[in-house]
User: Fold Stereocilin from Cyprinus carpio.
Amino acid sequence: MGFRSDGLPSRPSLMTCPSTEEETRTLKPQHSSRRPKLHQSQPKVHEQSDSDPSPSAEILEAACNASIPGLTGVSNFTVFLYCNLFDGENGSHDPEVNHFGVDLHAACSDAAWYLSAAEEDFLWVHVCSEFFAHEFNKTVCANSTFWLQHAHQAEATRDYQYLNQSSIDELCLQLSNGVSGGSPPDATEDCLTLLSSKTLTAQDFRRCFLPNNTALIASLCGNNSSQMPEDGSWAAEYCSKVTPNHSHGAPKDNCDYSNWKAEHFINTTALEICSSKAGLKDYICKNATLYLTLVRKQPLLLDYCLNSEEKQGTKCILQKLFDMLPAPYDFETSQLCVNPLPILQEAIHKLTLCEGVVDERTGWLATVSYVLRVLDFVVGLSAGLEEGQREVRQSLGQAILLSSLQDNASFWATLQPEASISVLHTVGVFLKREQNTTLKEDLLSCFSVCHAFKYCIVSHASILLLYYHAFSFKGFFPQQPVLWDLIQKEGNSSALRFLMQEYLQMPRESIRSVVMSAEKDAVKRFLSHVHQSWDQLQVETIQVSPKEQEAMETMTAAFIHKFPRVTPELFIDLSQFIPYMSVSDIMTFPASLMVNESVLLAISDHSSEMKSPQKQAFIKRLLQSSVAGDVPSWPPHFLSAILPLLPHLPVSQFQQLTSQQLTPLMEMLGNSSLDATRGRHVLRTVLGRGKNLTSDNIMKLGVLICYLNSEDLQQLLSSSNLSPVLWQKLAQCVSEGHISASGRLSHWLGTALKSLNASILSTSAMALLHGIVPQMGASFLEPLSSNELLDLVTLPGMPTFPPAQAFQILNKIAEETHFSANTLCRLKPLFPGLGPTFLRKLVVLESTPDCRCWSLMLAHLQPAHRAMVHLALQQALEGTSANITQQLECLLPFISLRKLMSDLDGETVLRHISVYKHMPWSHQQAQMLFKMIQRTVNITRESILDLGRIAGGMSCEWLKLWVNESGFSELLQFITKLPGGLRPGLRKCVVVELRKWPDIDLNDLDPSFAARLPLTMLEHLSNSSLISVLDYVRQHFIDFLQLPRHKQTALAEKAIDVLGISENGLTGASMDMLGPFLPFQDRDVLAHIDREALKLRLEELKQYCLLSDTFRQIAALLTERSMLGDPKTWTAGDVEHVGRLLFTLSPQQIRSLPLGDLGKDTVEQVLMSQWLWKSSELGKACLDLKGLREKMNDLTHRIVKGRWWMRRGPIPSCADIKGTFPSAWRSYQLNLMKKKELKMCVEFIGQDDTLDAEQREALWMELRPVYKPVKQLEPEQVLELGCIVTEMGERELQAVNLSNLAVVAHLGGLSGWNSKKVRF
Assistant:
């Protein structure tokens, strides 16, 4: 019936049907639909002799001598080839020269011909690939300029389908693989033989490559559905000769339909006036050619013909319907009333074979629509339908409905987006005018049955309907969305699910238009239905693609913005979208909404899907409600209702919760995600100090066990009867990050668990231990096999091992197995111990290289390790594959310029430009490649667009060549948007040219480039451009930190202006808008900050990069009475609250803290907050706080100095050192450590690069007896000593075996060497 997954037949109209002799040829297996069809060649027995030429010969001769402008349906190039053969045979050319071959050879060598005519002449493109393969390959396949010109031509014309690139790609692929593309489809063997033998005559060409006589005459003379030739022309004379009834006169009578033109038939007024004219309806509805042409222009003719009210004599209904089919079947339709099934079967069979000269999808679709109706009627003839017949009829009803939409493009899967307008128009008109609700619901049902219908005809229709619903809503739909109302009325969750899926594929602006253009009542009804059906929709909210996440966020924002004030009822209907609500939208909800019980229940139900910033926004908005009251007054039932939000209650407010409020919530809070600051407040408030803790009662605390006093837990861990449940829970605390993996409690836990046998522990138990394993030492892992080690160290969240342990583990793995480069990427915790012994076992599996992983791994390695790994990967790749492209993909940007110069040239780069253009080249590599290409071809302003990131290597001189060109602005937009940014020299060149040409609109520049413009040029940016710059900087704040200080200040000031923030008082909302720009504001701005709002946002402030020149201002704010007050009065909760902000205080203020009352746990927590910040990407880019080391010493001085009676201070244990930091202790204290404690702690101490020479020397003096003789030291022992090695004597260094590159790489990174020792 024509339903094919690969699209419509290429010539689907039903004007004529093939003869019996032709059916055999038509039923041959079809070739790929991508290839062209030759015109059906006629059997030679039907050809006219040369002495008795066919009627079409005159037409072709007229085309050759320009008596007619061309042939409809035949390309000019095909006519050109024929005419050259014709002229040659008539003596116009040298008869010895085969002009067909010469001309075709020239065309096959001409790139311009492929670009200008290849769409309509794709048959000849195929012939070129077969018979002129060398020319085709050189001109098209291997010619990058051809593809560049093609892309620019498509861009300029906005016609992306004018050249069938995918088919040419296929031909090129066949050519490169040495596989014949096969003969053009449907070409008879004699035509191909003549084509290759160079004996092709004009008569043969006409038979093989041109339409038959009837088609040529019809295309010239026209018919009832096409334009007639003008009177007096050669064509008019010819047509009057071959078609005696040919007439051009205007109708003498208004209702003389035999002389009407097409516009008369589609004029509904004329049809109404002439409705009584006998035979008019039969003339329209039974003339296949006229009907197919008219119905495309006026779809109403479908009903005009189908719903005929005229009496048809005694014909049965089936005969009436079949007589309307626009296809001339050779049987008496009256037989249908006697025995319809055999005849109907034959008719449908012929429908697949019919072919004519008119190539109209609409006509074919209309015919199929009628046949579907006939089938539906035949199936309905049976009395008492069986279940199977009901299903068939249901599917037929769906197909009939969709085919009734005249422009329905869903019948072919190759639909292009730009083809949707007419479909959408028809769908819109159908839904607007149709009064039959059942029929509308039938259309809706197509959404849910598509996946079950064998020949799915609805998916594209539904997609287009949705796009139309977004773009053309008001033009064709009533005042409210018809589709939404239909979905709600039917209650079909499958249809709604399909609808939501299609919305997620729409552009963001389109989604917003759908919602904002609808009436509020319609949106409310739709939201209510979505809410009620949400569970059946099976929407995934946890693991969604970035595109779907963005679409859901856009849809959610549109729904919220549709209503100025969200009511509790509306919020409930919106509740399924809570995980996609933005912080700014949440903060616009009425504050009173946050105390509504139904609203809080909805938030609680979706809390597991929410992100922390969303929960923080909800709780902040709740605090702004006057109904909520003060925190200490919150009743138990209210606290239970907001329990999922409690862990995100600002610390200053959380610390106001009382023992009476917290005690009933202990069990629930133990199962929440409380952090250390809030958790310790709960324990201090509820349990107090001195409470008798046992292994039994602390297990009821849940996550709160992580925040118990370390000394209390140490007593339990040192017990001879250590509870497995206790150590597993504490190990989980470490693995989940609630306890520092390198602090005191981790040290005590690791010591207690060293006696465990790793070989007998379950997989789950080992997984629980993964955060504490580095504390237990490499010896704990010795019983494990290589595979078990790999499984353990590649677990998510595994901390980095010290170099000595990492070295031992890697060697253990290398002893037993080879490993792939992809596996190496996952061994990041062991990178400090990398060495050549391990890397020799590296293999590269050619089939599955994870190149992105390799590049990221190389970027994170230290220089010496990076060199070793790069060399190992390169050697492994060269041994596996000589493919330089694969090596480049995997190892950029770490391949040397010398290797690139030796392995690449301009032609190679251009040949693989589709791959190379996206590679992350360094600035130097891009410069070199650009020069390579420039030496090979002339790079134009148009062709550079195809170079991608290589374009960043252009020289300033090349850029200046195009300054005076009209497209210079577009060129600037392109290069300023290149990933990775521009190198400093090129950026400076662009700025210089921009200064010379003030007419260039700076607002067109990419925000990443505009952020680095000089301040004088920033002044010329519009507010919208400045907002884009600020958004970019906020998302790439590390780039901002690399700007000069004066430019940072200027951008921070711009943020105040463009965001509309008053300098007279920074409110909480203003601080939220400024975000990381807040610490970069002027002192006067910070002085007017809202103190209460700042107190609620101290946690956010801790995550910002702080400037040394704002320390005094921030410290003054923190110590104000309305904030935290004098540091002398600060409690442990206050210190935990400020965290690393404590180091903005002066040394005197830090020393004034009641350190004796704070406790070692609090000091450790503050130090840990600073180290965690410094280890983050933003922390690494932010400059160290001024005087940080001195302030850290001031914080720990009470611990290090000890009680007042200790003249020389306490002797530290390993736990003491890990609770502070090694360099905090004086050299004599380190020298007095017990040997056991020092040996246990040496690896941790050796990693502190802030130890001074005196401290390192004292340590080595104490450790020398343990490590002598030094000439027998193993590599792991040298690595274990770390920076202490720098204090070895000269003779000791000479004796140490430093042949292992892993050791050399580690020692080379130490900074404590003097110049003399380095030479050893």
The mean pLDDT is 76. The first strand starts at residue 819 and ends at 820.
